[in-house]
């Protein structure tokens, strides 16, 4: 699950127009934005199996702090609270908290039973394993992504051509990265994977840039 998470972020713009798309992207992808840094710090780890191919390349050996159910709830509460302290908006803080948790919820459907419920070594692990049905998983991702684009475009008006260009670049990059993850070579090492995953912050920066060149749509038919 990759573009599906960002699709949820774009969809939420209609529900919370005052929240920047960049902030929404941080929320829906927060667990995966933190995870690469935890890999580099050896707090969590993953095993790469290039011989397996497809969605089985990565064996998520240990990620109790970013991808356990308890961890996801904790990050959701923390992110919502930080937003409330800065913006003093309870409704939007709750929306962002739910957005953070949506990441774990979507991962639950696709992961191969490797999501821990608690950040402990003997925790129960869950996951419905839709990665085992790649066409189904891809169709779900595309639906989430396209729906997000449509709802975002119905929620804003571009103030200038720059906004349209940057948004187009953003969508093109999403598609390229998604295709690369499906058919590109396996990462050479855990560190290589972690550094490449930091590329996601570019999507966040571009989303902030896009939003600075848009205005809210007050009424839509």
UniProtKB/TrEMBL annotation:
Pfam families with a match to the protein in the record: YdjM (PF04307)
Superkingdom of origin organism: Bacteria
InterPro entries assigned to the protein according to its UniProt record, in alphabetical order: YdjM-like
Keywords: Membrane, Transmembrane, Transmembrane helix
Record carries keyword Isomerase: no
Transmembrane segments: 21-43, 63-86, 93-112, 132-153, 165-186, 192-210
Name by which UniProt lists this protein: Metal-dependent hydrolase
